[in-house]
Amino acid sequence: MAQGSAAVPSTELLEWPKKDNRRLLHAVYRVGDLDRTIKFYTECFGMKLLRKRDIPEEKYSNAFLGFGPEESHFVMELTYNYGVTSYDIGTGFGHFAIATPDVYKTVEDIRAKGGNITREPGPVKGGSTIIAFVKDPDGYVFELIQRDSILDPLCQVMLRVGDLDRAVKFYEKALGMKLVKKVDRPEYKYSIAMMGYAEEHETTVLELTYNYGVTEYTKGNAYAQVAISTDDVYKSGKVVEHVIQELGGQVTRKPGPIPGLNTKITSFLDPDGWKTVLVDNEDFLKELGISLRAHILGSRRCGKKEIMGDFDGHGSSNGCTSHDSKLKDETKVKFSEDEEMLIARMFNLVGQRWSLIAGRIPGRTAEEIEKYWRSKHNSPSENDI
Ligand SMILES: N[C@@H](CCC(=O)N[C@@H](CS)C(=O)NCC(=O)O)C(=O)O
After folding, report:
1. Where, by residue number, does Zn(2+) bind (predicted)?
2. DSSP per-residue string spanning 235-284
3. Does the annotation place 77 within a ligand binding site?
4. 236 in Cβ contact with 16 (< 8 Å)
5. How many helices and strands in the chain, by DSSP H and E?
6. One digit per residue, pLDDT tens: the chain, 385 residues?
7. CA-closest residue to ligand 1 atom 1
8. Which single residue of 16, 84, 188, 212 has CA 20 to 30 Å from 265?
9. CA-wise closest residue to 65 among 32, 43, 87, 92
10. CA-based max dimension of the chain
């Protein structure tokens, strides 16, 4: 464990991660053939291709896929490095999980499309939830989990750790996550801790797995990191630095803007060596806003959708969450279909807790959502009663 002599941060600073506006944004990992993975995820899992970018000067390309827009959903960021066709996944990375209402049917569909089912559907060992496992073309495992209520199908990133208590403490203190579920299965010699910013059914969680007696895993070179949003990378970075002194880990990039892009980030390894990148909320939305703006202008100019315009709710009156005030004015009181659906689902779960709902919808305030809801449902506010 790293020892340091730095001053103890104030209580206000240590409580910052829990007060911050955080959400798991995406997982980043490398694949040997971008088109092959895009085909597999869209055809077998039903994901949408959200955007692609090519950075020839750095010799790589990215593709973003998910079940909803990046402003509100956890997505997969695939990286293709020119000429690299395979990677070592290592033993530490577990799986990504997709929630589906009928695992048996999903497996049937995936098999019909040539997918590799590595564990047949049925109750999880030691429990009753129906699960199955599928391997993607690069060998990444996807767990299919049967659920009735699904906010975002991409619901878990499972990573194996060598000390569960230490890992839970790290994600609580450094990242402000909550331990939303802990399960010990002594009969199968493992324990898991679900860590996240809301309950398991409301958001994507990190599933940390401890196998009895196993303290080391190989990391390979395939899986890279998860990204999490923050309102202040500098404050967040200070807390991370402090927690690393107590529990271990390593800062890999000090807080600051990425040259060229200007998005403020900081990155670090947890005590098991798993990497997280904290990304400034506003900068992240600005990055998306650039393409949304182009999308809006483009669709006005030529009357058709551009970029990955097959996405519901990404039309020209799409409730854009860009911080560009001009754009915001144009779309002020409108919410996209995706946002409306998310608000309705969140309302069913948490009721009139507008700030909790706003936490799931970047760029929207609790007031905006409350106003929208009341205008739509004609209900008086609590203050009016
Ligand atoms: N040894 C396992 C421990 C974790 C584990 O077993 N998880 C459950 C899902 S929560 C599982 O994979 N069960 C397999 C099954 O039910 O067939 C690992 O490291 O992946």
Report:
1. 77, 95, 143
2. HHHHHHHHHHHHH--EEEEEEEEPTTT--EEEEEE-TTS-EEEEEEHHHH
3. yes
4. yes
5. 10, 16
6. 444 455 778 999 999 999 999 999 999 999 999 999 999 999 999 999 999 999 999 999 999 999 999 989 999 999 999 999 999 999 999 999 999 999 999 999 999 999 999 999 999 999 999 999 999 999 999 999 999 989 999 999 999 999 999 999 999 999 999 999 999 999 999 999 999 999 999 999 999 999 999 999 999 999 999 999 999 999 999 999 999 999 999 999 999 999 877 899 999 999 999 999 999 999 999 888 744 344 334 334 433 232 333 333 332 222 222 223 333 333 356 888 778 777 876 665 556 667 777 877 878 888 888 888 777 765 433 323 2
7. 211
8. 84
9. 43
10. 65
**Is 241 assigned to a binding site?**
no
What's the CA-to-centroid distance between 137 and ligand 1, angstroms? Answer: 21
Give the Å distances, CA to CA, from 110 to 21, 113, 175: 36, 5, 36
What tokens were used for 251?
């800062």
Domain boundaries, the chain: 11-282, 306-380
> Topology of 306-380 in CATH?
Arc Repressor Mutant, subunit A (1.10.10)
For the 11-282 domain, the top CATH level (class) is: alpha beta
Active site amino acids: 143
Which residues, in sequence order, are CB contacts of 303 under 8 Å at separation 6+? none
Closest Cα to residue 28, out of 308, 189, 223, 262? 223
95 is in an annotated binding site: yes
With the CA atoms of 146, 147, 148 and 151 taken in that order, what torsion angle do they form, in degrees rounded to the nearest 10?
-130
pTM for the complete prediction? 0.78
Q: What residues have CB less than 8 Å from 371, skipping those under 6 apart?
A: 333
Please say whether the dihedral angle defined by the alpha carbons of residues 171, 173, 177 and 178, taken in this order, is positive or negative: positive
For ligand 1, the distance from its centroid to the CA atom of residue 183, given in whole angstroms, is 12
User: Which residues, including other chains, have CB under 8 Å from residue 353's CB and lie 6 or more apart?
Assistant: none
Beta-sheet pairing, 75-81 with 275-280: unpaired
**What's the residue count for the chain?**
385
Phi, psi of 19 (to 5 degrees): -95, -20
